[in-house]
Specification:
single chain; mainly alpha; 72% helix
């Protein structure tokens, strides 16, 4: 019997190959399962639909390093790995970034980043509270997931010409300064 991971990975690879050839809207579950060499019911044993599969790809192939490096206290390393993983899947990400609407690639990326950050922030804040009651782990995770998603999606849409290391540095620069500080530092 095959492990769940290998079937998930085969379905993901099939889906990625298909997105490189056609728009996501035209991809069927049959297309995905044919490419993975499994039967249709197998897909539904692992995923609800192709958007659930896309979320798995985002979590496991693009964002997983952020979870691991946050736990170790190394945000910048996690950022470099995210940008590196996105760059490795450049054509897939560029094509997926064209998806719009409720199940857009951007909304899936934002939700996955939010889950990662919320888990991290909640664990760090356990038993403590913020100075301002309005600032909850949910809101802080939302703020940073919005900003990181914006930076990642803008980088993808601008054809990823800046290196992953420089993008991580840029994001770190932005999140560690106020708007006033950045305006004063302009040349």
């Amino acid at each position: 019997m095959e492990s769940k991971i290998s079937v998930d990975q085969r379905l993901a690879e099939s889906f990625i190959e298909l997105i490189l050839k056609m728009p996501m809207e035209k991809i069927t579950i049959k297309d995905i399962t044919d490419g993975a060499g499994v039967i249709r019911p197998t897909f539904y044993n692992h995923f609800q639909d192709k958007y659930d599969l896309l979320e798995w790809i985002v979590k496991n192939e693009l964002l997983e390093p952020l979870t691991l490096t946050l736990q170790r206290g190394h945000l910048e390393d996690g950022l470099v790995l995210i940008f590196t993983n996105v760059l490795k899947r450049k054509e897939f990400c560029i094509r997926a970034a064209r998806m719009e609407g409720q199940n857009s690639f951007e909304s899936i990326v934002r939700n996955c980043i939010w889950e990662t950050l919320y888990t991290y922030i909640s664990a760090r804040c356990e038993g403590r509270s913020f100075i301002h009651a309005w600032m909850t782990p949910e809101i802080i995770a939302e703020y940073y997931s919005q900003s990181l998603t914006f930076v990642v999606m803008t980088w993808i849409r601008k054809d990823m010409i800046i290196s992953p290391e420089e993008m991580a540095t840029i994001y770190q620069y932005i999140i560690h300064r106020s708007m006033d500080e950045m305006l004063h530092e302009m040349l």
